[in-house]
Amino acid sequence: MTRVNVWYGTESGNAEMVGDEIAAALSSTGFTSNLGELPDTSVSDVSNAELTIFVTSTYGEGGLPATTEPFYDALSAERPDLSGLKFAAFGLGDRTYENYNNAVATVSTLLIDLGAEQIGPTGKHDAVTGLDPAQVAQEWLTNEILPILNAEGESEQVEKSSHSSDLFPWSNEDFQKILIPGTTQLANWAPFIRLTTRHSSFLATMRR
Fold first, then answer.
1. Which region, left, alpha or beta, applies to residue 200 given φ > 0 means left and ψ of -120 to 50 means alpha?
2. Which of 129, 127, 111, 128 lies closest to 119, judged by CA?
3. pLDDT tens per residue across span 27-48
4. pLDDT > 50? residue 15
């Protein structure tokens, strides 16, 4: 079962609500979700993660919220190799501000700069719409992210099945060392096998 981290940074609690919704939706579709707040997420946690959804609101004029900033600063300072990480990103903002949803773009840019791969488009909630951010996040997850996760999961299953069904590793050199001498010995016995077969056929004819 695929494990997905859901890490959020919030100012007013809306990003936490979105993180809860995403984690619950993942669990209901067969994934194992791990919900956590960005201040409690260490650089080593990110370095060891394989699949994560980052959720953050934008504070003021495009700034990082108080619970996202320490996480961002730690990553910027230590600059770990995140080439093994795939992530999705969802932001909460207000389009009336010039730097709408700037925080999620700032975090995503740093992750990519450190080698991480973003999957799917960045999800964005606009407070001006009056829509429930949790509902917007669930629709984004369902339409944009889950199809990618499911496709990757199916590819892994196919790959595992192909390896498990390879009962005879013909290209393996050690296997060839065992197989080839046996085949050579069988070829040496071929004249005797043909003679025995003819003799058996002759006896069968005599009994008729």
1. alpha
2. 111
3. 999 999 999 999 999 999 999 9
4. yes
- CA distances in angstroms from 157 to 1, 3, 50, 81, listed in the order given: 11, 15, 17, 27
Cβ partners under 8 Å of residue 187, min gap 6: none
The pLDDT of residue 138 is above 70: yes
Q: Whose structure tokens read 């495009």?
A: 62
Give 140's contacts (C-beta < 8 A, 6+ positions apart): 90, 123
DSSP 127: G
Residue type, 167: L
SS3 (DSSP) at 29 = coil
Helix crossing, 133-140 with 14-28: angle to 10°? 40
Q: Does the structure show a pLDDT above 80 at 5?
A: yes
